[in-house]
Amino acid sequence: MDFSGLIDNFGPLTVTGLAQGAIIALFALGYTLVYGVLRLINFAHSEVFLLGTYACLFAWGLFGLDQNSATPAVGPMLLYMVVGLIAAIVVSGAAALTVEFVAYRPLRRRNAPPLAFLITAIGASLFISEVAGVLTHRNQTGVPPIIQARPVFTIGDTTVTNLQLLIIVLALVMMFVLDRFINGSRLGRGVRAVAQNPDSAALMGVNKSRVIALVFLLGGLMAGIAAVMYDLKIGVTRYDAGFLLGIDAFTAAVLGGIGNLRGALLGGLLLGVLQNYAAGLFGSQWLHAASFVLLVVILLFRPTGLLGESLGRARA
Questions:
Q1: Domain residues for 33?
Q2: Would 314 be classed as within a structural domain?
Q3: Which parts of the chain register pLDDT below 70?
Q4: 16: Cα separation from own chain's centroid
Q5: Torsion on CA atoms 42, 46, 50, 56, rounded to nearest 10
Q6: pTM for this structure?
Q7: Cβ atoms within 10 A of the Cβ of 50, count?
Q8: Contact yes or no for 96/48 (Cβ under 8 A)
Q9: Residue 312 pLDDT
């Protein structure tokens, strides 16, 4: 254990962890939304994210960009960012809705047992991942340097870059927008009503199928944004990129309180920081192992998570 390395790099590890945690938090929102309404762990959500990482690369490729391209100027960079975000959001949102319509909705109509949903979720996840692997020949794909990481400000020996700041701020903004939508809009009230009591909500005129489609769509949109931030931060993607990050996002959702939107944000940021501290203490090979250890500890001692409030009981 390298305590001196952890202490010496405490600031940089914290900032890097917050940026990584912001991506995990956006990813975790999909798990939280679906679980809050359906009490279902949508393991195919990791591949919804995966498709978003490829969608923005395809969109950037239409402009002739690849991993060897030069960093664009500010104007073109903003255009590429908007185009990449739109592409990832559309593809991830469409993929999430497709999974709901093709995989889960037929099971609900047949009143299938929970185990059938779990097996279907794993099957859908493997199917999408393997198709992506075949199409990409299981090779990693480089990301064009859309944003060149540059220092924005320094606190002590800790430098915060423009990319880290963008990821953290974007995650906070999207979390705020989603929280206001769920707690303040008419559609959001429908989501909370179905999460709290589906039968009573149906009697009050709430369309349960429409609400379920909405939460899958919202989760897909958040995954698409996370996918673009992941591409920019990591610099490569591959057919199984969603697997380990999906485990991290699931851990973050459980840590904050699965079914709790604010808990997903808190869990994601906290997990990202703890992962980086573990990497600084034990070595980078322990980065993802820390997630598994933390998940076991949470399930043993606080299975309801830090906040532990369900979506249906959320307060505006």
A1: 3-301
A2: no
A3: 309-316
A4: 17
A5: 70
A6: 0.93
A7: 29
A8: yes
A9: 55
